[in-house]
Amino acid sequence: MILRPAPLALALAGCLVVSACQRDAPPPPIEPEAAQRAADTEAQARTAAETAEADAFVARVNDTLRADYPEQTAAQWLSQTYIGPDSATVAAKATERGLAQLGRFVEESRRFEGLELTPATGRALQLLKLATPMPAPNDPQALAELTRIATRLDQAYGAGTYCREVDGERQCRQLGALEEVLADPASDYAAHLDAWSGWHAVAVPMRADYQRFVELSNQGARDLGFADTGALWRSGYDMDADAFREETDRLWGQVKPLYDNLQCYVRTRLVQKYGEQGEIDGKIPAHLTGNMWAQQWGNLWPLVMPYRNEPQLSITPALQAQREALLQERLTALGRPPSPADRVELEREVDLAMARAMTERAQDFYVSLGLPALPESFWERSQLVRPRDRDVVCHASAWSMDFADDVRIKMCIRPTEEDFLTIYHELGHIYYYIAYKEQPPLFQAGANDGFHEAIGDTVVLSMTPEYLASIGLIDAQRQSNEALINAQMKMALDKVAFLPFGLLIDRWRWGVFDGSIAPGEYNAAWWRLRAQYQGVAPPEPRGEEFFDAGAKYHVPGNTPYTRYFLSHILQFQFYRALCEAAGHQGPLHACNIHGNAEAGAKFRAMLAAGASQPWQQTIRELTGREELDASAILDYFQPLSDWLSQQNQGHACGWPEGGGAPAARTAAR
Ligand code: X8Z
Ligand code: ZN
Questions:
Q1: Which of 209, 376, 520, 579 has its CA 20 to 30 A from that of 331?
Q2: Are 574 and 546 in the same domain?
Q3: Which protein residue's CA is at the shortest distance from atom 8 of ligand 1?
Q4: What CDD domains does the entry give (predicted)?
């Protein structure tokens, strides 16, 4: 059957409104009434047929996705775990085919626009247009160029290497090794600067590609009916795209005072350590935060720890001791003095054994909530450690390969706290995939992308010091106000420090996509936003010869980032709701849902819904309220917030947003 095109359907809707407005008109003669009835019956039959046709179309899209998607994910997997020209060719081609198919489906779906559809079909069609953050231009050549550039950028990041001459020898390091320099409190200022600027140099050659990427992706967005790629990204939240932008502003306004307080305190400690090099015009030097992007500051813990006499909170020492013990065990079992080759081999085995043990610990937590053990294929196919023989994209990720049981993570796990927590994060994605695998592919997504990012982190909030002590990763804790402030500070270095970073990446990209940030000011705009939101400054002049945004994975990897900002608000809302379900009494920060079946059942129900309904409904089912709401994170950090306000008294907190002289400093309350 041939369906009527969309404009006619819209005209029909208008006609129905008109007839409703004519209620007071004199009764029409009998004959026209009969004609009207016949027309109504015909219209109903037509509507029913159209509805059925739309349902069948969505079913066909879902079937095609199930059939074709595994080939694309397999190609992507190879491209990220065997970086090189061949895997790049295969991945770019597979993505090109997938996006072209998606584009055809979107075109086809237009004939259903304006029709009255079943809610599920209407939602599926809406999600179809939002299915990719890299919209495909209709022009086949442009599409092919887009997927080639995207793959090249992704691989360039993964293979990124910084080389320099040391004592006449060429020394080359990749991201992991450079991050270790920044994380080590014993590294000096010059070493920090070298590692930071070395990694940022890797992004310089990406700049031209990225600029072209933006043009092509925007072309795709316009072909889909969006103003630009940023507008497409902002449309994925079951609300008006402009309203979404305002929503993120509102949330930032709620948490900014807490962040500013933390920035001020950390800056003071940096100045104590580095003297006048510890701040740049009230801002924190980007290379001194213990993190390559100044996004989470957990590695500054030894520097900013409020009370030094309390038991230690970092779990890295225990993980490293476990690794060392394992290595000794294997060396002893060898029964002869190890050769250098033995050592390399045993270290590899031990790294893998540690990575697996850490992943099993994370799995334990989910299983304690009533979620299933991970399938055997997860253990067989995941990449847990960095292979020695080739370049890979080490940035952690979680994959559903086939909308069914083939789920994997790809990481380069080291025995550190940071990586341990990242495993919990990644398994959050995996358990989401597993929980919604019965949904049709178009609904196999987070309620929104912030939900997906928040699942594992919600679990991490339960890793209280008491819990970590119970699994032997830190010593038993004392109950005291000092211990509480220490624990809160440690958590805040990750969760609070992250908030402005989570926001600014897409503030930059939204501007790049809508043209308000021109290609000639990519870097200036980047550092303007870093100053404005984070109060972070570059350690050296960064002109337009650099491309510092490109040094962050999600920019060359084209992963939208506002999701992480949302996640850092949502995870506290989820945690509060699950703690209530678990019957937790007392302050929020003391709650641990480990082993709680009630909390687990609520969690699982939320996950199973996937994207089948608007996120507002999903969050209402969990928390009783429909809004994103920063009151949970503010509640959680109330003790620290009070403490920071006290500590900052008498300090000139705040920072001038530009690069100019200190001006708008305000005294802390
Ligand atoms: O990219 C990630 C995860 C994978 S979705 C490791 N995260 C963001 C980042 O590393 O920049 C988690 C926190 C923020
Ligand atoms: Zn994630």
A1: 376
A2: yes
A3: 564
A4: M2_ACE
